[in-house]
């Protein structure tokens, strides 16, 4: 585990990138494309990105580039731009313009950035956000403007679909039902018929454990306890005591990032491995946490839609390309960014334009050939219908890694009353 | 279903957490007591200790080397900060120090992100300290017992030095009346540098010790500095004894709080601070003349 200087914060794609300020940028853009039309400048503010008459696709990143989630934002950009670069720097045969603003993890900033992207920058495509709270806050603005396709490259809260049910919103990532519920029958059949639930006590953690509980009980299993831990806790010892006292044979967990590192490390330090089998959402044991978790992660099971060690030609090529460019393996976020680019590329080529309604029609039900395995946008919700990998952490030459134990064949996802 | 084992486990955790927090809070309070500087960069020094620990372990393969070398490196950073940036500002309005050290904290965090990226690391604990210890029905990780023992020993040693030795007398005297000590022929600026260096080293030790059971990440300094400030305020600004008692109090409150009402623990801690500030504004062990 040698610390490397993997930052890539300012990695430039082939397209022009602008950190725009104010509304002058859009005029500049159009003015540059259609020389002599500067007289129109005054009335351009009212137009939307879809009919600006130029041949570029404007991609707006609504992502965190600083703070806790900066690594996720950078990974999504890396994946997206790698695909575009592999296609001569074009999307659907058109030049690409990137607009990048930092949402941090701030809900208000997410909304104002979305508005700027849509109204001032005339973005044709929004990519992001990372946080579901930001996504839920963005919904209204995207719907009101109706001027861009929103490729949700991470935020997985089911309520984005339940409350939004938005025809411009396409999730190239996952929903939180997918990363928890399908694991439950598998755990019941292969691990234990009783389980305790341990989760980071915020919306995403609560959704995950609720979905798991529902599916586990439906499969015939018994949930013998629940342990909610405040988000960002450093010490899990008292909670580990509760988990141990539950007497369960299996534990299902949702923790992510630094929390996942602390929880898994201390779970192992306390010797709980000998008493119960650790299972969880894939974020518990992922590319960004495994190096720090090390041997403490060994033997533990988790569920996710993308696993870099997946042994398919499609994925191995993707991994090699990514590694060649960034000196590190792609994580799930990079795959989600890459698939966002694939999706919009196919749609723009298909409709030969950037009209959001045409693009939405084209994307609906579209099948994407992803490194994760092919997936399809659900015609009712625009969520991805996809395979889920059950992985186990095994020892390798350079530490530990996830090995795919079995792949669950496109579990049927709920629609939460959304019917597009 | 709170039984004896659970309470015992929480107590051990609370003491261990308290003693490691005391290492951070002690440095903070000593620097304030001597220099009148509120050092916002102290959490960043703690973080640097953990990152240096990660590097030393990965280069030399020894946790023990990291436990010695990393704090020394942090001490060097502390010396540079004192000599290059704090010293020119002594005697000015305290606001200058707050702005300066806050800026330093942001700079250090920025450098850490540039060098090591945003992902988490961890210091592998030595094999000799792996496994758990059985105390009746309670099993407790050996490494955590070790952390409790080392931090308690260090805090005890510092207490002895401050209360019993000549160095301690000098430190207390310098804190009490800088001009008098200066007039007696002692180079007070060296004492100042020494205190900052020592405080930084303590934060570095805490960083290495906790870096083995916690994620090492760019946000870790911020969480700790908030807790350390609460401790120092409760214990009394500038009081070493106050920092130790305050740290134990917060450690135990955190551990017991997790048993009773996890989501309210932070609220309890800040409520305690508010009560102390109202009832005894100088803190539990603060000097009465402290503002």
SSE pattern of chain A, N- to C-terminal: EHEHEEHEHEHEHEHEHEHEHEHHHEEEEE
Radius of gyration of chain B: 19 Å
Name the quaternary structure.
heterodimer
Uncertain parts of chain A: 1-14, 20-52
Shape of chain B: globular
Low-confidence stretches of chain B: none
Number of helices of chain A: 13
Radius of gyration of chain A: 22 Å
Query: Strand fraction band of chain B?
Result: under 5%
Mean pLDDT over the residues of chain A: 87
- State the end-to-end distance of chain A: 47 Å
Q: What is the rounded distance between the termini of chain B?
A: 45 Å
- The residue fraction in helices of chain A comes out at 25-40%
Fold topology:
The complex is a heterodimer of chains A (420) and B (291).
Chain A: E1 16-18, H1 24-33, E2 56-63, H2 70-86, E3 90-91, E4 94-102, H3 107-120, E5 125-127, H4 132-145, E6 149-152, H5 159-164, E7 169-171, H6 183-190, E8 194-200, H7 203-219, E9 222-229, H8 237-245, E10 250-254, H9 257-269, E11 277-281, H10 290-293, E12 301-304, H11 313-326, H12 332-351, H13 356-363, E13 367-368, E14 375-377, E15 384-385, E16 388-396, E17 399-408
Parallel strand pairs in A: 1-4, 2-4, 2-5, 5-6, 6-7, 8-9, 8-10, 10-11, 11-12
Antiparallel strand pairs in A: 3-4, 12-16, 13-14, 14-15, 16-17
Helix pairs in contact in A: 2-12, 3-4, 6-7, 12-13
Chain B: H1 4-35, H2 42-60, H3 63-86, H4 94-116, E1 132-135, E2 138-141, H5 142-164, H6 166-176, H7 178-183, H8 188-211, H9 220-235, H10 240-260, H11 265-279
Antiparallel strand pairs in B: 1-2
Helix pairs in contact in B: 1-5, 1-8, 1-9, 1-10, 2-3, 2-4, 2-8, 2-9, 3-8, 5-6, 9-10, 9-11, 10-11
